[in-house]
Amino acid sequence: GAGVSQSPSNKVTEKGKDVELRCDPISGHTALYWYRQRLGQGLEFLIYFQGNSAPDKSGLPSDRFSAERTGESVSTLTIQRTQQEDSAVYLCASSLWGVNQPQHFGDGTRLSIL
Amino acid sequence: AQSVTQLGSHVSVSEGALVLLRCNYSSSVPPYLFWYVQYPNQGLQLLLKYTTGATLVKGINGFEAEFKKSETSFHLTKPSAHMSDAAEYFCAVTQGGSYIPTFGRGTSLIVHP
Hints:
The structure holds 2 protein chains of 2 kinds.
Chain A: E1 5-7, E2 10-13, E3 19-24, E4 31-37, E5 44-50, E6 65-69, E7 75-79, E8 88-95, E9 104-105, E10 109-113
Parallel strand pairs in A: 2-10
Antiparallel strand pairs in A: 1-3, 3-7, 4-5, 4-8, 6-7, 8-9, 8-10
Chain B: E1 3-5, E2 10-14, E3 19-21, E4 24-26, E5 31-38, E6 44-50, E7 56-58, E8 64-68, E9 73-78, E10 87-95, E11 98-103, E12 107-112
Parallel strand pairs in B: 2-12
Antiparallel strand pairs in B: 1-4, 3-9, 5-6, 5-10, 7-8, 8-9, 10-11, 10-12
């Protein structure tokens, strides 16, 4: 079956522009996560959605970052007024509900800020 | 609070040699443990997981890991390394009450011919 799909795969933009990243989770996965991975680094948690519950936004680094998800479908991560330090790979993962459930990752969006 | 420590940011082995990647965790309650692999320009892929039951867990590509509660460890092993095993490996832990996994910083496995 289809895995987690992220688009675009690469995005190059100028400093100060807004960008929107998209994630299509696996059908039936109620949980959805966004992570940031800087070059050569580990995963930095950004935000977690579970069904129709209020999202856990505790990992968002600043108010320039926001994310939305409608029900159990597509999610978008928006970065406003991009800065050079926002350059990274943004990974999306989805899973079935439960702490014992593994995550399924997309291939990420590589964001480069000029 | 839970935490994950992966000893060694880089591990280098020869092709055919034993692979051992270390993961230690801290958790106040029984944890759920995962190993993921990341190949260049790809997302993470599940190798194996421990939830309950048998403490020796077998995963894909010949990897296995053993949950040792007394040592708070979940080390990943493979008897014989292959060139295609070269990748970044991440250990992760979740526990009851938190649906957000804690990831280790990752270990880069380098395989020499």
